[in-house]
């Protein structure tokens, strides 16, 4: 697909704006971000070159079981609570809560297991995940978190792949109720039967910590109704544009080495906070800037050999360099 001059110029303008914003920063650049316990995230990761390594293909049950097994095993190992998950052909979305502050090792193990298993299944030996890195966003309130769940589950419909989210042949929690537990078998040929991996792994879909006035069934019904509204809206848009959904039959013929052809903006800033309210987003970003300033000051003092206490949520230096970290106040 040819890229227009306007798009090239827009990309150049974004890079210039990003550089200017970095130069105006009052403290040294900080790549770290706080990893605090009991934080909810939307975790997204894309495949290398937007290739469809996760495509369900003609044997969707195999890849569904494989992904479900890896997700169940790693979630149990690190205590991660899964609220919604959809594995698209070239990326995934997982909405979760991290009670113990183990988001980083959970992602490392989950992505590693998926990559090695996909390579074994596809006969590959190279990278599976894009070098752009992950995108983990936080939501500031219940309504925003709820919208995120709807977006995750309806993603196959929004992409024009299936008419209803529950028809997506890949891994999805579209038809799971909160509190429902499903069991996945250890995939044959991918793990040593005499190794440490269990023969079976179970995954329970945990309700997100939102709308405490609703019980699990009421929250599920609210979510299902919102997803259906989105599905009907997308279907109406497709009819207006004379477009058709790909459907399960065509999806079965989708080759895993294909590249997604839709246009994707490049050189954009990976979001850390997402909210429809500008003021909520700015407030959270300001809190993040304050954390980065404290982190930068502590790091500068630490590198000079002076006593330093890093802000709560410091992960890498605490784990690998043993720095002192402030206690996270109870929520």
UniProtKB/TrEMBL annotation:
InterPro entries: Transposase_17, Transposase_17_sf. Residues 36-155 form the Transposase IS200-like domain. SMART domains: Y1_Tnp. Residues 1-31 are annotated as: Disordered. GO terms for biological process: DNA transposition. It comes from the Bacteria. Residues 22-31 have a biased composition (Basic residues). One of its GO terms (molecular function) is transposase activity. This is Transposase IS200-like domain-containing protein. It comes from Enhygromyxa salina.
């Amino acid at each position: 697909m040819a890229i227009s001059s306007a798009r090239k110029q827009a990309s150049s303008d974004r890079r210039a704006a990003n550089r200017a914003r970095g130069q105006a920063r009052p403290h040294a650049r900080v790549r770290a971000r706080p990893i605090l316990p009991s934080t909810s995230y939307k975790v997204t990761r894309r495949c290398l070159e937007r290739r469809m390594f996760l495509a369900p293909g003609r044997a969707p049950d195999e890849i569904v079981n494989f992904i479900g097994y890896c997700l169940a095993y790693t979630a149990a190992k690190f205590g991660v609570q899964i609220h919604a998950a959809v594995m698209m052909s070239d990326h995934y979305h997982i909405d979760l809560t991290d009670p113990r502050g183990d988001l980083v090792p959970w992602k490392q193990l989950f992505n590693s297991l998926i990559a090695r298993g996909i390579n074994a299944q596809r006969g590959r030996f190279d990278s599976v995940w894009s070098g752009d890195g992950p995108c983990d966003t936080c939501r500031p309130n219940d309504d925003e978190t709820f919208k995120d769940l709807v977006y995750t589950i309806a993603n196959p419909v929004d992409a024009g792949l299936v008419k209803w989210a529950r028809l997506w042949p890949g891994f999805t929690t579209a038809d799971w109720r909160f509190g429902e537990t499903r069991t996945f078998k250890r995939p044959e040929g991918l793990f040593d039967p005499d190794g440490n991996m269990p023969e079976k792994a179970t995954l329970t879909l945990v309700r997100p910590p939102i709308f405490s006035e609703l019980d699990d069934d009421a929250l599920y019904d609210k979510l299902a109704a919102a997803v259906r509204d989105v599905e009907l809206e997308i279907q109406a848009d497709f009819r207006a544009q004379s477009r058709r959904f790909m459907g399960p039959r065509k999806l079965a013929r989708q080759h895993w080495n294909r590249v997604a052809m839709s246009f994707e903006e490049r050189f954009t800033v990976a979001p850390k906070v997402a909210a429809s309210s500008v003021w909520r987003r700015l407030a959270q970003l300001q809190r993040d800037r304050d954390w980065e300033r404290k982190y930068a000051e502590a790091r500068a003092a630490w590198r000079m050999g002076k006593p330093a206490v890093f802000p709560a949520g410091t992960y890498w230096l605490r784990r690998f360099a043993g720095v002192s970290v402030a206690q996270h106040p109870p929520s």
